Amino acid sequence: LVNHHKWLAAHDLPARSLKFRSIISNLDYAEEDLAEIRARTRARRPQRNRESVLAATGRTPPDGAFEPNAARPAPDVVESALEQLRKAARMDQ
Q: pTM for the full model?
C-alpha cells in the first residue's frame, strides 16, 4: 500500500501522506486502494513489438493482426475503388 502511494506521488497523481495513520485512518480508503492495486496487477500488459519478434522467428502473427507488408500504395487503392464505382454505375443504367 505504501509503495502504491509512492508510485502515485512519483507520477504526479493524487496520493495520501505516507504516514501510517493517514494510510489506515479510514479503512474504506485503504480497501479501495488495495482493490486498485489488485486490479493493476491483473491488467494485461501490452506486448510491444510482438509482430516483429514473431516475424523474426519465422512464426505467423495471429489472425487479424497488422501486417506491415500487406499495405498497398494509395493510388492503387483509390483507382480500384473508382473502378468498382464505375462498374456499379454501369450496372444501374
A: 0.41
Exposure b/e, 31-63, CB count within 10 A at least 16 = b: eebeeeeeeeeeeeeeeeeebeeeeeeeeeeee
- Report the length, in residues, of the chain: 93
CA dihedral sign, ordered 44, 48, 51, 56 = negative
Q: Extract the residue ranges of the chain whose pLDDT is less than 50.
A: none
Which residue's entry shows cell 501490452? Answer: 46
Strand, helix or coil at 18? coil
Residue 7: what residue type? W
CB 69 within 8 A of CB 52: no
